[in-house]
Amino acid sequence: MSRAKELEKLRLVLQRRRRAVLETSRGAREELRALKDQERDPEYEEGAQSELADYTLSQLVESHRRELELIDSAFQRMDQGVYGECVDCGADIPLDRLRALPFAIRCEEDARMYERERRGSPQQANFTL
What we know:
Elements: H1 3-37, H2 46-80, H3 95-100, H4 108-119
C-alpha cells in the first residue's frame, strides 16, 4: 500500500479517536458530576471529597483537551500536505511510528533530542576508540 493511502487511513483513525475522546470526556463529566452530588462519605470532610472530584475532573478535562489539540493539529497538517513530515528535520516520519502515535510531529530521533533539551539533560558524549 502506498504511503499516501496509509496516511489517509490514519486520518480515519484520528477521526475515530477524536469522537471517542469527546464521548469519554462527556461521560466522565457526567459521572464526576453525579459523584459530587451523591451523599458524602462521613469519614471525609465534605470539602475534601469535593476538592478531589474537582481535581480529578480538571485533570481529565485537561488531558482530553490536550489530546484533541494534538488531533486537530494533525488534521491541519494533513490539509496542508505536510502530515507525516518531521517538523525539525523534514524527513518522513516512519509509518510504524505514525500508526502507534498518529499525531506525532517528530521522527523518533528528533523527538528524543527534543525531550532531552526540554528536560535540560546533557547529551551523552559519543566516544570513538
